[in-house]
Every structure is written in C-alpha cells, then in structure tokens.
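Example 4.3 (complexes with small molecules)
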Amino acid sequence: MAISLHLQFSLIPARLPQIRPSSLIRCGESEFDAKVFRHNFMRRKDYNRTGYGHKDQSLKRMGDKYASDNLMQKLKENGKEYRWGDVTLKLGEDYGFCWGVERSVRIAYEARHQFPDRTNWLTDEIIHNPTVNQTLGEMGVKIIPVKEGKKQYDLVAKGDVVVLSAFGAPVQEMMLLTQKNVEIVDTTCPWVAKVWHSVEKHKKAEYASIIHGKYAHEETIATASFAGTYLIVKNIKEATYLCDYILGGALDGSSSTKEAFLEKFKFAVSEGFDPDKDLERVGIANQTTMLKGETEEFGKLVENSMMRRYGVENISNHFISAKTTCDAAQARQDATLKLVDDKEVDLMLVIGGWNSSNTSSLQVIAEERGVSSYWIDSEKRIGPGNRITHKLMHGELVEKEEWVPKGPITIAITAGASTPDKDIEDILAKVFEIKRHQE
Ligand code: SF4
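Answer. The structure with iron/sulfur cluster bound is encoded below.
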C-alpha cells in the first residue's frame, strides 16, 4: 500500500494517552484506513503471527519454567481442594495462564529459537507478569527501553526481530516498524483484535466508540488507535457522568458544561472530540479484561440514556454494542465470585502482576465482597517471617504482619490470566513455611 507518511515517530511516547492516528496519517487526500493498513501489514513477508515450527520445544521450555508438577497437580487431581496440616486450599475453577497468554509467550519463545543471532525486542512487556518478563529477558529478549517517557526506537536496527505483545500495538508503532524493515512477530491475542474490529465497525458506520477501559493501558491504547472518534471511560462513576451529560443533567441534576466534560476526559478522547456532536451516535467497546458485571452495567447505562434521549424506536440509529469481553477473563472472574461466596474461606490470595488489569478485576471482586484478600505478584512479597506486602484494588501497597493466622485456616486462591502455575506454587510454599513455624 502506498502510504504517504508524515508521522513524527520520535514523538510517539511509551504510553500514548492521546492517540490521533487519523489526524497524523493521510493517504493522499483520503483519511488513513487503519484496517487496510493492518491487512497489508499482516501480509508482509517478514511478518509472523503463528510461530516458526518450534511449538513443541517452546511449550516444553515453558513447562520447565512455569509449570508446577507437584502441589498444583495435587490440587487439580483433588477437585481443586487440598489439605496440608492445618491448611485447606481451595483453588478457583479457572485460574492462571489463559490460552491467549500461553500462545503469546510460546510465539515469543519460538521467535527466539528461530533467530538466536539477531537482536530480539519486545515492544512492551509481553504480558503483565514479572516472572515471564524476567525469563524472556534472561533469554536475551529485550524490551525497547523508554527514556524521558519515549520509547528508544532508534536502538532498533534493520533486521532485528520485534515482538508485539499480547496486548497488541498501536497503529503508529506498527507503521514505524514497517519503515524499519524488521522481522515482526505479532503475538496480539485474537480477543484483542476482535475489539479492534468492533471499533473499526463503529468508525465505518460513523459512530463514536465509547471504550470501557483504562486510557493508559497498552491494550486500550492500541484499540483507540484503530477507532475513529472515541471516548475512554474507566468505571461506572465516569459512565454516570457521561450519561448525565447525554441527558442534560437528568440523571442527578448536575449536568456538566462542555468545557468541564472535555477537561475531565482530556487524556481519554480523540482529537477534536465534541461531546455535543459525537455523543449522538455511539458504539460500545471494551478492554477485554474489565470486570464483566461492570462492562454489562456500563453498556446498559449508556443504552438506556440513549433511549431516553432519542426514543426507544430510534435506538438502533444511535447505539450499537457487541460482546467483546474475553471468555478467559470472565471465567476467572466467575471462579473468584464462587470462592468469595464460600463461607469456609478465611482469606484469599489473588495472584498476578500488579500491573495486570485482569488480576485487578479479581481483587475488586474480593474487596467488594469484604473477603480478606492479598494481591501479590510473587513469593518475594511474603516475608521475612509472617509478613506480606500486598496491593489493594485502588493501587495502595499495604504491609501486614501476622497475616497468616494460627490454627486451622482455609485459603482460597485465584490467579490472573497471566499467572504461571509456578508462581502460585512458590507462594503456597511460603505459606506452608509460615505454618510450619507456628507449630
Ligand atoms: S485474558 Fe483474554 S484477551 Fe487477555 S490474553 Fe487471555 S484470552 Fe487474550
């Protein structure tokens, strides 16, 4: 595809709070079409998104590093419950590595195997798990460094191998890499690409995309780069504010001004976003790992507001929505909901990266249900002695002494989609050590 590029790639920050590809990229007189670009990007001869024929070796290497063949095996064989002395463990029905994560990491392993003599880069953390990222680093796969808020793309040379993470990459980054003549290894999870298709549909039908997500999260940054006009909304509180604006203050009588609206969402809207015009026709999309219940409530809230504003009979001209939450993230949320309802559970371990959005959703479930929950990303957060450093759903870090009580205890375990079994096993080994010292 002949693209006349006027991108100032050096201006692409590591995080892209405001993505405006359509304003930056033009194909002659017509507006840049991200869908067409990606279609052609994926047909380049130096592009791969399936692996290089080293699947078995890669899965074996991953198994050696991330699997647990002891405790986790016992838990699985015993219907996800296991008793050791005073400790009863209850593991969620669905937990840990999802197929999308396993696929991404496996393809990155295959790429390293295929190109041992070339420099291998990652555009970002491949997934949000410290163990996995560290292991890839030890294998010689480097994350493109960030200096003063900007990725150092000048370090990436012709012929290098660049792995796009499971969250995908923004259009601008793909275009830059195209120009650099590097080998592209695209590990974007297909669930994420499905959301891109949704926002592309919105764009084509001239609906603004309202994305339920976190504007600074890599996945949402990539999704927004495929959207036309967009607004990113984080939670129900922000959605209520938005709907109140749509209804001119009818929800709580405190309608915002246009200026206040734009100030509130200044990092979360496309260039030139005009709430008075762009909120007339809206499509809903979401970051795949948001809390399922919240995404559903969010969609209904916006749909109801559009019905009130434009009439039920006209809703199809003003609102569209498709399910784009990911099944794997939902399954882990459902499993956690079951665990928090279990009256025998004394405390819950929420295991997964502290920057993992899908794990944070699990912590939200536990905290909102009032369960004593400890979100940790590795066994290093436990100790010395009976101490734990854990994260709360709003990001605060908390240290707690004597977190494992004496006597019989039932511990529920839930783990985000990017958490390997080995992390869970190492954490439980620390718990057993604490219990041993209490005897
Ligand atoms: S949680 Fe869902 S979107 Fe994320 S990698 Fe796994 S399957 Fe893909």
